[in-house]
Amino acid sequence: MFKKILIANRGEIACRVIKTARKMGIQTVAIYSDADRNALHVKMADEAVHIGPPPANQSYIVIDKVMQAISDTGAEAVHPGYGFLSENPKFADALQAAGVAFIGPPKAAIEAMGDKITSKKIAQEAGVSTVPGYMGLIADADEAVKIANEIGYPVMIKASAGGGGKGMRVAWSDAEAREGFQSSKNEAASSFGDDRIFIEKFVTQPRHIEIQVLADSHGNAVYLHERECSIQRRNQKVIEEAPSPFLDEATRKAMGAQAVALAQAVGYTSAGTVEFIVDGDRNFYFLEMNTRLQVEHPVTELITGVDLVEQMIRVAAGEKLPFAQSDLTINGWAMESRLYAEDPYRNFLPSIGRLTRYRPPAEEATPTRAVRNDTGVYEGGEISMYYDPMIAKLCTWAPDRATAIAEMRLALDAFEVEGIGHNLPFLAAVYDHPKFISGDMTTAFIAEEYPDGFEGVTLPQAECERIAAAAAAMHRVAEIRRTRVSGRMDNHERHVGEDWVVTLQGDSHQIKITADRGGADVRIGDRTLRVTGDWTPGQPLARMTVDDAPLVMKVGKISGGFRVRYRGADLKVHVRTPRQAALAALMPEKLPPDTSRQLLCPMPGLIVKVDVAEGDEVQEGQALCTVEAMKMENILRAERRGVVSRINAGPGDSLAVDDVIMEFE
Question: Which residue is catalytic, options 76, 288, 628, 633?
Answer without folding.
Answer: 288
